[in-house]
Amino acid sequence: MSLDEIKKKLSIGLVEKHINEPSAHYVHILLLRELQSSAIFTTNGQDADITTVGINADDGIVEYSPVMMFKRKQTGSDRRKGKELQRNFVAIKDTMSVNEMAPDSPESVLYGSAAGENAISVTSRVMYDTAYSIRDSSVIVEEKFQNAPGDEYAKGATTAIREPDFIMPRTLFPCVITLRDATFDELIFVLGITKMNKRYGAVTSRIGRMENHILGIYSGTEEGTANLILSQEVARRIAKENEKLTAENISKVLYSTVLDIEKVKKYVRQAYDEDITKLNIKALDNADTKELLDLVNAETITQSLQKLQKASVEFIKEVNQSNKSSKKNEKKGD
């Protein structure tokens, strides 16, 4: 199947060209993020980002504390990868410095930018939400200590230095990336970023290796299931394998030392597919999803970026001209 044929199947969630007003076109990328090394997800520089939530069982509510992968930990890393791909494939000079971003680059037009010299700010059309670990933080967070530095052969007693909390490898984060009012070329770009980006969190030159397993692609006119619900549904479905959805069985899942990743993939997809039956969202079938992902490579990303480069410049020009016309009309009215 060609890219054009796949594009038609996703047409309800796509636009043909950049528009400047929301029009309820959504494409959703269902993911399972798998840590393949230790990672640091912290706000205060020391403690892992965790929260306390409840999950329903047939005989009560189980409270637990999952690790959070805040949305900015995802967007920041993906944006850096997007600007890197622009530089590599189509030689677009851009930066992550807030006030120096090129507002008319494909990445900035899609992911957003602050107001620059032309006083145009661009709102992001790629929507992320905080992702939650399936298991409790007590079994996936480890504290590490190191001795104070020094190269003397003999020295007095020193105080151990606590390093930031580390999230352990094989921690899993079900999540969804949503594109709003995006073109098919922008979808190719985001899929390329998602496939190629391998580092998240702090100190990514040494840790934070992540594999993004793309489980499904969906299109529609509204948003789908929240990340927290997906994580909790996986725990509930694994617990149900023991016949009863009791607090004890759920706790066994939440505090287990390891989860079967293939089983988790199946349940994430299953939970999302069941939830969207009552929403105006349709799934791209598995065969087409696999074919699309296989077609997303350096060549197709380059082709999409070349088209987006021209379209993005034209879009910012049109918005700028529209703004100037509006200001002139306002002065005439005065």
Layout of strands and helices, then pairs:
Elements: H1 3-9, E1 26-35, E2 53-57, E3 60-64, E4 66-69, H2 71-90, H3 106-111, E5 126-127, E6 131-136, E7 141-142, E8 145-146, E9 161-162, E10 166-167, E11 172-180, H4 184-196, E12 210-220, H5 227-240, H6 247-254, H7 261-275, E13 281-283, H8 286-295, H9 298-333
Antiparallel strand pairs: 1-11, 1-12, 2-3, 4-6, 5-11, 7-10, 8-9, 12-13
Describe the structure.
With 334 residues, the protein is an alpha+beta fold. It has one domain (3-144, 160-321). The chain has helices spanning 3-9, 71-90, 106-111, 184-196, 227-240, 247-254, 261-275, 286-295, 298-333, and strands at residues 26-35, 53-57, 60-64, 66-69, 126-127, 131-136, 141-142, 145-146, 161-162, 166-167, 172-180, 210-220, 281-283. The strands form five sheets. A five-stranded antiparallel sheet has the order 5-11-1-12-13, with helices on both faces. A two-stranded antiparallel ribbon has the order 2-3. Strands 4-6 form a two-stranded antiparallel sheet. Strand 2 and strand 3 form a beta hairpin. The chain is globular, with a radius of gyration of 23 Å. The mean pLDDT is 89.
What is this structure, in a nutshell?
This protein is α+β, with helices and mostly antiparallel strands and 334 residues long.
SSE ordering: HEEEEHHEEEEEEEHEHHHEHH
Label the structural class: alpha+beta
Main β-sheet: number of strands, strand sense, barrel status? 5 strands, antiparallel
What oligomeric state do these chains adopt?
Answer: single chain
Strand content range: 15-25%
Q: Unreliable stretches, pLDDT < 50, 5 or more residues? A: none
Number of domains: 1
Question: How many β strands by DSSP?
Answer: 13
Question: Distance N terminus to C terminus?
Answer: 58 Å
Shape: globular
Q: How many helical stretches?
A: 9
Q: Helix share of residues?
A: 25-40%
**Spatial extent as radius of gyration:** 23 Å
